[in-house]
């Protein structure tokens, strides 16, 4: 017991620098976010033109009571699901492809992927808009769809943004999984082959279980990224699409709260988003643990 | 360990249970020397603006020994962030700033701009300011800025197309849709009239001309009136333009004012609603030399639809340490002489009755705009809630919902009114 206590202290001493940084950079802002979400905190209050008013859960009840919030939330979940699925499928397929092709082809693939990855979100979105421009876009010229507006319809606009999100986020999945596949010892695969396993069987029973920890990481990362997507939607649909039908949670929060200087309400949306993401992550990890996997 | 953590939590809670607020933004000092900081908006043709401003700065520095004027040009798009930061931290704020009149109510509620009522009353040029324009600088009856220039919109049309088809510019608001439809039928490559689902200042004259309004005021509270029968009649008239046979929603629903004028500039539209401030860009476009401008007609022949009186003001920030100097600089730069120079350099419409008359007599192009101004202009509700309604895109959403067929006029106007009332009461 005493030894355990001593060890705990030593561990704490070693962890304290990291802990200090985390508390300062993460803990304090989160604390402020939660506090602000309990107040009517607008520009008047920030600059001292009006007194602070404590609302308690007022911002939350206003938020959860609004039908628009729920429809935007549903839209966000569906949009994020499509993006995550697309990113994982494209990323995994190309990672497998990269292990099968010759070095020069692999180099080309990686360079192209890194290009997409390195492009800033605003620049990428704008370039995609040029490509899909109704009158002058390359895509419409090639497809002979002159004058067709991709950003007008709700579903074409969402599809276009989802494609752009997949385009700029698949390289992370691809490179991570490629590294994971490469790290699988050749002996293991050889042994499976000697035991008579087909390629498909080896992939399912050997490669996939070995890759699972990596898959978990990239899935959670993708969920968090795609749930919080802002730039692509904001730039490509002009701030949420025609009549706001392409709004996702982050753009909605920006429009309702920050552009309108309702920081209290904005903080409440931030807290709710954080809780939802935490819930998704915890649920996903527990589901995995139940199926017998330990992270 | 547990106790230690609990202790930290208690300290953290005690350290600040409330979010930060900066103190009241008045400094109480009035220095007569030092640096006067000025924020003006950046422009596409800034060199022209800069030249006039530098002239004013030189004159001001010549009159006030020991004073330097530092002018910074800020981006219109990021103005909200810049001003919010300036109000939250008076130390980094300018003494004098240019700002849009629709932002005024929010800025004043934030405690950002000083009361200039007494200054304007004591100023010999103050009495010549156009009363309707000066009203856009008032919050609760107090003047918080000097109108520097105004902008109003009128109907631009292509003279060559009209001559070819043998048609006349519309004489009533209700004539616009049939005329635009007829032009597009004859010339399918042209939009009958280029308008947009986000072009609120293009749509509001339709509402006002039909006797409607955005909101009505009783006491100091606003109530949305956008769902009144008159307002809905106006909205319906405007939404009728956003149809495939005039301005197809797929092309037009996402357009604001700039994009609407851009179609006209590109020679792709027979008409558009544009401002006096759009003239220079239209003169440098495919439509140059073959367009005319008339006031946007009202309900009855010969009448003018009330236009939105946009424009920019010069104000003094309440946190300034050089209140007198700042007020003097505003009166110099927003005064008659420099407004005239700004008109010559930028084409900005002056805010003084007499200066307006002089420039309009010299330049027939301005006639439709001064006629529109003289016929009476309208404004958006003067309340900080307007910034919220604007940021939440309440009116564009309403117009777009109707244009895309998502909602009919009644439903869309009702939900817009609900959203506005929620903002007015929050």
What count of helical segments of chain B does DSSP give? 20
Shape of chain B: globular
Low-pLDDT residue spans of chain B: 9-15
Number of strands of chain B: 14
CATH hierarchy class name of the largest domain in chain B: Alpha Beta
| CATH architecture heading of the largest domain in chain B | 3-Layer(aba) Sandwich
Shape of chain A: globular
Q: What would you call the quaternary organization?
A: heterodimer
The structural class of chain B is alpha/beta
Largest sheet of chain B: 5 strands, mixed
Mean pLDDT across residues of chain A = 88
Termini of chain B, distance in Å? Answer: 45 Å
- What's the alpha carbon Rg of chain A, rounded to whole Å? 24 Å
Question: Major sheet of chain A: order of its strands?
Answer: 1-2
In the CATH hierarchy, what is the class of the domain at 67-260 in chain A?
Mainly Alpha
Secondary structure: helix percent of chain B: 40-55%
* Largest β-sheet summary of chain A: 2 strands, antiparallel
Walk me through what this model shows.
The complex is a heterodimer of chains A (295) and B (426). By secondary structure, chain A is mainly α. Chain A has a domain of 194 residues: Orthogonal Bundle (MetI-like fold), CATH 1.10.3720. Chain A is built from 13 helices and two strands, in the order H-E-H-E-H-H-H-H-H-H-H-H-H-H-H. Chain A has a two-stranded antiparallel ribbon. The radius of gyration of chain A is 24 Å and the shape is globular. The radius of gyration of chain B is 24 Å and the shape is globular. Chain B has two domains: 177 residues, D-Maltodextrin-Binding Protein, domain 2; 203 residues, Periplasmic binding protein-like II (D-Maltodextrin-Binding Protein, domain 2, 3-Layer(aba) Sandwich), CATH 3.40.190.10. Chain B is built from 20 helices and 14 strands. A five-stranded mixed β-sheet of chain B has the order 2-1-3-13-6. About 2% of the residues of chain B have low confidence. Chain B is an alpha/beta fold. Chain B is 45% helix and 15% strand. At the A-B interface, helix 1 and helix 2 of A face helix 3, helix 11, helix 18 and helix 19 of B.
């Amino acid at each position: 017991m005493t030894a355990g206590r001593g060890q705990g202290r030593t561990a704490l001493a070693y962890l304290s620098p990291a802990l200090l940084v985390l508390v300062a950079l993460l803990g304090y802002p989160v604390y402020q976010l939660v506090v602000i979400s309990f107040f009517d905190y607008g520009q008047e209050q920030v600059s001292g033109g009006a007194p602070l008013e404590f609302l308690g859960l007022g911002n939350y009840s206003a938020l959860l009571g609004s039908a628009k919030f729920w429809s935007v939330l549903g839209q966000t979940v569906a949009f994020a699901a499509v993006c995550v699925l697309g990113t994982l499928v494209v990323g995994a397929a190309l990672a497998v492809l990269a292990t099968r092709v010759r070095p020069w082809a692999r180099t080309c693939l990686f360079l192209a992927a890194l290009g997409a990855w390195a492009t800033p979100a605003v620049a990428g979105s704008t370039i995609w808009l040029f490509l899909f421009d109704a009158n002058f876009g390359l895509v419409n010229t090639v497809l002979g769809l002159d004058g067709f507006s991709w950003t007008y319809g709700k579903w074409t606009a969402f599809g276009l943004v989802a494609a752009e999100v997949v385009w700029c986020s698949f390289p992370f999945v691809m490179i991570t999984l490629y590294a994971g596949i490469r790290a699988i010892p050749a002996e293991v695969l050889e042994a499976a082959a000697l035991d008579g396993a087909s390629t498909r069987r080896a992939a399912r029973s050997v490669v996939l279980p070995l890759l699972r920890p990596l898959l978990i990481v990239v899935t959670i990362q993708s969920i968090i990224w795609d749930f919080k997507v802002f730039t692509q939607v904001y730039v490509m649909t002009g701030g949420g699409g025609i009549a706001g039908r392409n709004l996702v949670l982050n753009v909605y929060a920006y429009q309702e709260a920050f552009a309108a200087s309702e920081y209290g309400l904005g903080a409440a949306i931030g807290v709710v988003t954080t809780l939802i993401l935490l819930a998704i992550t915890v649920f996903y990890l527990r589901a995995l643990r139940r199926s017998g996997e330990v992270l | 360990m547990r106790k230690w953590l609990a202790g930290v939590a208690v300290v953290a809670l005690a350290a600040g249970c409330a979010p930060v607020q900066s103190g009241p933004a008045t400094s109480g000092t009035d220095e007569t020397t030092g640096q006067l900081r000025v924020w003006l908006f950046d422009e596409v043709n800034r060199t022209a603006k800069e030249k006039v401003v530098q002239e004013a700065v030189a004159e001001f520095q010549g009159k006030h020994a020991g004073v330097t004027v530092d002018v910074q040009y800020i981006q219109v798009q990021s103005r909200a962030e810049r001003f919010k930061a300036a109000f939250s931290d008076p130390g980094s704020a300018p003494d004098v700033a240019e700002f849009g009149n629709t932002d005024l109510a929010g800025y004043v509620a934030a405690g950002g701009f000083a009361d200039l009522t007494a200054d304007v009353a004591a100023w010999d040029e103050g009495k010549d300011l156009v009363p309707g324009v000066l009203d856009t600088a008032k919050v609760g009856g107090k003047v918080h800025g000097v109108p520097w220039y105004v902008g109003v919109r009128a109907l631009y049309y292509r003279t060559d197309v009209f001559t070819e088809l043998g048609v006349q510019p519309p004489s009533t608001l209700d004539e616009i849709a049939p005329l635009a439809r007829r032009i597009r039928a004859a010339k399918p490559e042209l939009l009958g009239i280029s308008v947009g689902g986000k072009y609120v200042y293009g749509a509001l004259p339709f509402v006002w001309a039909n006797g409607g309004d955005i909101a009505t005021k009783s006491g100091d509270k606003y109530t949305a009136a956008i769902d009144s029968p008159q307002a809905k009649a106006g909205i319906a008239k405007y939404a009728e333009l956003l149809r495939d046979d005039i301005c197809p929603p797929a092309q037009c629903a996402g357009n604001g004012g700039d994009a609407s004028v851009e179609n006209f500039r590109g020679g792709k539209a027979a008409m558009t609603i544009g401002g006096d401030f759009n003239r220079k860009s239209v003169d440098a476009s495919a439509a140059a030399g073959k367009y005319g401008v008339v006031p946007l007609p009202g309900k009855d022949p010969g009448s003018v639809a009330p236009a939105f009186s946009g424009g920019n003001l010069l104000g003094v920030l309440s946190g300034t340490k050089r209140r007198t100097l700042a007020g003097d600089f505003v009166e110099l730069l927003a005064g008659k002489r420099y407004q005239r120079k700004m008109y010559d350099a930028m084409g900005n419409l002056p805010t003084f009755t007499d200066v307006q008359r002089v420039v309009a007599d010299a330049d027939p192009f301005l006639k439709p705009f001064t006629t529109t101004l003289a016929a009476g202009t309208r404004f958006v509700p003067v309340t900080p809630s307007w910034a919220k309604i604007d940021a939440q895109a309440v009116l564009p959403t309403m117009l777009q919902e109707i244009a895309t067929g998502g909602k009919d006029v009644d439903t869309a106007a009702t939900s817009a009114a609900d959203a506005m009332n929620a903002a007015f009461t929050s």
